[in-house]
Specification:
This protein is of the alpha/beta class and 484 residues long. Helix content is 62%, strand content 7%. It has 2 domains: 2-379, no CATH class; 389-479. It has 20 helices and 7 strands.
């Protein structure tokens, strides 16, 4: 048995470890990843573990703190680097792989458990999110723990899985918020209707488990509201209701709405699950055609566990069908149950021949190979990306002293704030010209947008020299002693 599985184990290990390489190679990218990285960096710097800060003095009410806690702790342990920022998401992904493996092994066996983990780890969205600074990996960890726990708790009513279910809810509530309850209890509700009976669920300690969840999560929510009043109204009403129903929600304090046509979430399902989701759809369609032609073949019916997995894999798409303010990352919670279902679809052990191994390896390395190629390109050509890493690095190497500030005319990108460790300044053109006349430093570094670079340079006071340029900004050195 173990000899037959050796190549699958090696392939899984290579895939999972390869993400560590790309995590260190790719710089922090604007906007979302660099923004969350900067929030975590400020948390690590200030030691404020209650309120995430969007900027110094500006609270970030958009997300709970679990991902920021883990990233800030990683910064404290390993320093402020891209790898340290992304490591917690990789560990969350590792937790999901362990849960997928454990549940699939219980249901179908070790071989399909390895197949399920391979499928999940090489889906487009899950592979990307395993090394990205976002809250979604922690939400998916929470919902996956809840799903695995409810299935195993119904198998073993007196086991600790009953309590792990509520621990999963708590992780989700501290990672993303009340959306966790929708993504967990929505499929459960539909599952009860599909089965036409709910008596098995009475085995779960709902009252004690709810109190356990409240004990784990409510203290932070209360502390956050007391420290920055207005948080609960913005987070509960704004982020969880207005954002869902209003595609052009103007109350967003930290970004802009994502207005997409209704039903786009299903297209995101295809992208997120590449290459395995489309492969599964094609295989199912082919089997349906064969079954139609061969009427003697019995139709396979889904058992209760497979029904719950299917509903969990489809529910995010169903829920967000009529919402246009969506992102493709919303599909991450659907991928663990989908991976288990696809592994079950491949129910017969794969023959150990060259053709089957080649097919599995080709499908599994498709996404990682592309991402690693992109990682190499990003490492050697960072100025082609939306990041200020090289500009900040150039400034740090050429500034005369630590008191010489880097000034962005207009709002600096989050990656500039992250790589400068919060020291970058923002000014408007009149303020910069005033500084050139009255400042104390002989030389200043100023970053301007490339769109209006020539016009901006002619408007600046002092002797201007272009030092460096990337995709979006040009770094200028201004000698205020040689004014025009």
């Amino acid at each position: 048995m173990f000899k037959r599985l050796d190549w699958l184990l090696w392939l899984l290990a290579i895939i999972v470890l390869s993400r560590l390489l790309s995590m260190a190679m790719i710089p922090m990218l604007d906007t979302t990843e660099a923004r969350y990285g900067e929030v975590a960096r400020i948390m690590a710097e200030t030691g404020d573990w209650i309120t995430p800060w969007f900027d110094y003095g500006v609270p970030f009410w958009g997300k709970p703190p679990l991902s920021f806690w883990s990233e800030a702790l990683s910064f404290r342990l390993f320093g402020v680097t891209e790898f340290a920022a992304r490591l917690p998401s990789w560990l969350a992904n590792l937790g999901m792989l362990a849960l997928i493996y454990h549940l699939t092994k219980k249901i179908t066996g070790q071989h399909q458990a390895l197949v399920a983990t391979l499928i999940f780890s090489t889906m487009a969205l899950s592979f990307l999110m395993s090394g990205a600074v976002l809250t979604d990996p922690f939400l998916a960890l929470g919902t996956t723990l809840a799903l695995v726990s409810i299935i195993l708790a119904l198998r073993q009513p007196d086991s600790l899985w009953c309590w792990w279910f509520f621990a999963g809810l708590s992780i989700g509530l501290l990672a993303k918020g009340p959306l966790t309850l929708v993504l967990v209890f929505g499929p459960l509700f539909l599952w009860v209707i599909w089965r036409r009976q709910w008596h098995d669920l009475r085995k779960i300690p709902w009252l004690r488990g709810t109190l356990f969840t409240i004990l784990l999560t409510f203290p932070w929510y209360i502390a956050a509201e007391l420290k920055t009043p207005g948080f609960l109204n913005y987070f509960i009403v704004g982020e969880h209701f207005l954002r869902f129903v209003d595609s052009g929600w103007s109350g967003d304090l930290y970004g802009s709405a994502h207005n997409q046509p209704f039903g786009t979430i299903w297209l995101y399902w295809i992208w997120a699950s590449l290459p395995w989701g489309p492969i599964a759809v094609i295989v199912l369609f082919w089997r349906w055609i064969v079954t139609r032609k061969q009427h003697a073949l019995p139709k396979q019916k889904l058992n209760d566990e497979q029904r719950l997995l299917l509903l969990s894999a489809l529910f995010p798409s169903l829920f967000f069908t009529f919402s246009s303010n969506i992102l493709w990352t919303y599909q991450l919670t659907a991928l663990p149950p989908l991976a288990i279902l696809i592994a079950m679809l491949m129910a017969n052990p794969l023959p150990a021949n060259r053709f089957s191994k080649f097919g599995i390896i080709t499908a599994t390395v498709f996404v990682p190979f592309i991402v690693i190629l992109i990682g190499f390109r990003a490492h050697f050509y960072p100025d082609k990306l939306k990041t200020e890493k090289t500009l900040i690095s150039y400034y740090n190497e050429h500034k005369n002293n630590d008191t010489q500030p880097l000034i962005y005319i207009g709002k600096p990108p989050f990656s500039a704030r992250f790589y400068s460790k919060g020291r970058v300044k923002t000014m408007e053109l009149p303020e910069v010209n005033s500084l050139m006349k009255n400042g104390t430093e002989p030389i200043y570094f100023v970053a301007i947008a490339n769109e209006n670079r020539d016009e901006m340079i002619t408007s600046l006071t002092g002797q201007v020299k272009i030092e460096f340029a990337n995709r979006r900004f040009t770094l200028l050195q201004i000698n205020r002693a040689a004014r025009n």
